[in-house]
Write a structure and sequence with these properties.
Helices cover about 35% and strands about 15% of the residues. The strands form 2 sheets. A 6-stranded mixed sheet has the order 4-3-5-1-6-7. Helix 5 packs across helix 6 and helix 7 packs across helix 8. The protein has one domain: 3-Layer(aba) Sandwich (Rossmann fold). It has 8 helices and 8 strands; from the N terminus they run βααβαβαβαααβαβββ. The chain is globular, with a radius of gyration of 16 Å. Helix 4 links the parallel strand 3 and strand 4. It is α/β, with parallel strands linked by helices.
């Protein structure tokens, strides 16, 4: 088995405003930078082969955590939220009512207008996961909430309906195990980042 560790990017202004970011390329805000400057990656993950989403908030996170020689990979870009990027989810749900409830009830096949579904995100990630498994070396990435949730769903069989079976700590390292064929084992654990 091959270990895969994922870290969500630091905080942006849109995170603080609870806006849907998707592929909108927002930088980290001052709070996000300040929080990351106080954290470090545990030694056990330092020698991993590191990857990063192409979005600025992820690359800034990698740099602030002191990562060097990471590879930017388009497979790790956040889920595309189409027409809903920039919206706040709670008022959006209220405005759309049954239409939104029906869409969210589709789980893996939920799709924002002009965006992509979690199932499409998983399909985009599968070739990358197979490459990691073929390499056989521990790998890690700076990614996004949507990516981590989609990988968790692949590992656990969760259909993405309702709440996640686990409560993710978004300031932690999310660890998974890859089988030799690139599929994910039904194992998940989180590891805290350490003080710098």
């Amino acid at each position: 088995m091959t270990r895969l560790a994922l870290i969500r990017h630091g905080v942006t202004d849109w995170n603080l405003e609870k806006r849907i970011q998707g592929r909108t390329d927002r930088p980290l805000c001052d709070l996000g930078r300040h929080q990351l400057e106080a954290l470090s990656i545990p030694d056990e993950f330092r020698a991993d082969r590191w990857y990063c989403s192409p979005l600025r908030r992820a690359r800034e996170t990698a740099d602030l955590l002191g990562l060097e020689n990471y590879q930017v990979d388009d497979a790790l870009i956040e889920m595309h939220w189409g027409d809903w990027e920039g919206e706040v989810l709670k008022p959006l749900r209220k405005r759309l009512g049954d239409v939104m409830r029906d869409n969210e009830a589709r789980g893996l096949d939920f799709r924002p207008p002009g965006g992509e579904s979690p199932r499409a995100v998983q399909a985009r990630l599968l070739p990358w996961l197979r490459r990691l498994a073929a390499d056989g070396e521990p790998a890690a990435a700076i990614a996004h909430k949507g990516i981590i949730r989609c990988i968790y769903a692949l590992a656990s069989g969760w259909d993405m309906r309702g709440e996640t079976p686990v409560e993710f700590a978004w300031d932690a390292i999310h660890c998974f195990e890859l089988n030799a064929d690139g599929s994910l084992a039904a194992e998940y654990r989180s590891v805290s980042l350490v003080e710098a």
